[in-house]
């Protein structure tokens, strides 16, 4: 069966690309024959779980600092931001609905239901006549003028364009186990080293054994090789292996394949001087040493800080609360990570996200060596990169797409 465009991967970027390409308008505009091939049983399974199931599609604050790469770190981040900057509020082009941002800039549909995002895209594809194949993997892609795709059920598909939207290696329960990188490698593309990202940190637990299950609002700083590499504020959850929570996810890229330490600042809204003054007052009132941080911090956290402080002076206790360090020994694995750090090396990909090694072969989303911070940045990249590919294909075909 022949198609104009074969999209490998029915996740966020693959569905968005199909939606953009399928939205052809104008009297002289012909419809493209498009096929989306998804190895999992359901389209958009990972998209349906994004933002803890609430659908965090983007963020009101986006810059190059929010994107990372194993290979060409600055170049890839700048390229990603350049593409995203041309697609402001891209979720409004893809979805008909009301969206709003929370106090941290995270953009959600007003209904806070991620599965509705998937449903909307699938319905859009159906209206636009896009063919979908689920539960079947692409086992090989070759080119002899047209692209020739072989599917795991034995079917053969031909296409003028191929877009690899296959995701990464994180969260194999969604069908992304990293095996699809081989499709890019077959065309000579290099895959940079792969690491779990937006993931929990494994740390020395000697000083936090009594804190298991406690959640606190903290400021975290990642220190690798003696240098501060990342900082974030948010929830920290203490666990049997180390620490979790959205602040941890935000700084986890700094520890990709690296060890170091994390500095935890408890009570970031309380100054050192105020904290010291509060401890002094409690000492004058005769509080037990273990209770000198009561009401100011969670009691268990306060006691852990006091036990670890070099002495019982207000300065020493307040200093420990402001700089509570843990040795980071690694991260949890890909099964726990939200995204993959690493992927198809961007040095062999054009700004249109086309392969420099094979004409009409494109990439979008997590398969590339570009990943974003926690807070909607990765879905922004998935949608914006899909639009970039759609724009390139549309121009070559002389088509006019909605929103482009």
Polypeptide structure, described:
The protein has 404 residues and is an alpha+beta fold. It has 2 domains: 2-195 and 341-396, FAD/NAD(P)-binding domain, CATH 3.50.50; 200-331, no CATH class. The protein is built from 10 helices and 20 strands. The protein has helices spanning 12-22, 73-85, 91-94, 114-127, 181-185, 246-251, 272-284, 299-308, 314-322, 377-396, and strands spanning 2-8, 34-38, 58-59, 67-68, 99-101, 106-109, 131-134, 138-144, 146-151, 156-164, 195-197, 201-203, 215-224, 227-238, 242-244, 260-266, 324-331, 339-341, 361-363, 371-372. Strands 1, 2, 7, 8, 9, 10 and 19 form a 7-stranded mixed sheet that branches. Strands 12-15-14-13-16-17 form a 6-stranded antiparallel barrel. The longest helix has 20 residues, at 377-396. The chain is elongated, with a radius of gyration of 24 Å. The protein starts with a strand and ends in an 8-residue tail after the last helix. The mean pLDDT is 94.
What's the arrangement of secondary structure elements?
Blueprint: E1 2-8, H1 12-22, E2 34-38, E3 58-59, E4 67-68, H2 73-85, H3 91-94, E5 99-101, E6 106-109, H4 114-127, E7 131-134, E8 138-144, E9 146-151, E10 156-164, H5 181-185, E11 195-197, E12 201-203, E13 215-224, E14 227-238, E15 242-244, H6 246-251, E16 260-266, H7 272-284, H8 299-308, H9 314-322, E17 324-331, E18 339-341, E19 361-363, E20 371-372, H10 377-396
Parallel strand pairs: 1-2, 1-10, 2-7, 10-19
Antiparallel strand pairs: 3-6, 4-20, 5-6, 8-9, 9-10, 11-18, 12-15, 12-17, 13-14, 13-16, 14-15, 16-17
Helix pairs in contact: 1-4, 1-10, 7-9
């Amino acid at each position: 069966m022949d198609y104009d465009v074969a999209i490998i991967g029915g996740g966020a970027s693959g569905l968005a690309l199909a939606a953009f390409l399928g939205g052809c308008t104008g009297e002289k505009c012909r419809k493209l024959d498009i096929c989306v091939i998804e190895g999992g049983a359901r389209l958009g399974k990972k998209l349906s779980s994004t933002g803890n199931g609430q659908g965090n599609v983007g963020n009101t604050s986006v810059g190059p600092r929010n994107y990372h790469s194993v290979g060409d770190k600055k170049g890839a981040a700048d390229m990603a931001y350049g593409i995203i900057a041309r697609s402001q509020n891209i979720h409004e082009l893809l979805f008909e609905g009301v969206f709003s941002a929370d106090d941290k800039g995270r953009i959600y549909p007003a209904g806070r239901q991620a599965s509705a995002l998937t449903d909307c895209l699938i319905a859009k594809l159906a209206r636009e006549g896009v063919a979908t194949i689920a539960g079947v993997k692409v086992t090989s892609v070759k080119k002899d003028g047209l692209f020739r795709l072989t599917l795991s059920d034995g079917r053969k598909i031909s296409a003028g364009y191929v877009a690899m939207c296959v995701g990464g290696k994180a969260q194999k329960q969604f069908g992304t186990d990293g095996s699809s990188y081989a499709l890019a490698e077959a065309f000579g593309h290099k895959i940079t080293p792969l690491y779990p990202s937006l993931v929990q940190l494994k740390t020395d637990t000697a000083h936090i054994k009594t804190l298991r299950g406690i959640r606190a609002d903290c400021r975290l700083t990642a220190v690798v090789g003696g240098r501060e590499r990342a900082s974030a504020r948010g929830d920290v959850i203490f666990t049997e292996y180390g620490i979790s929570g959205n602040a941890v996810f935000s700084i986890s890229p700094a520890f990709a394949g690296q060890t170091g330490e994390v500095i935890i600042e408890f009570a970031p809204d309380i100054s050192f001087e105020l904290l010291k003054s509060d401890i002094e007052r409690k000492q004058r009132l005769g509080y037990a040493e273990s209770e000198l941080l009561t009401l100011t911090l969670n009691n268990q956290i306060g006691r852990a800080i006091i036990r670890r402080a070099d002495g019982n002076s207000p300065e020493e206790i307040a200093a420990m609360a402001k700089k509570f360090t843990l040795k980071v020994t690694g991260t949890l694995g890909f099964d726990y990570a939200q995204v993959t750090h690493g992927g198809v090396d961007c040095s062999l990909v054009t700004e249109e996200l086309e392969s420099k090694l094979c004409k009409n072969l494109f990439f979008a989303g997590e398969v590339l060596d570009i990943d974003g911070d926690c807070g909607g940045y990765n879905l922004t990249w998935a949608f914006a990169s899909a639009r970039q590919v759609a724009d390139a294909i549309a121009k070559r075909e002389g088509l006019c797409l909605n929103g482009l």
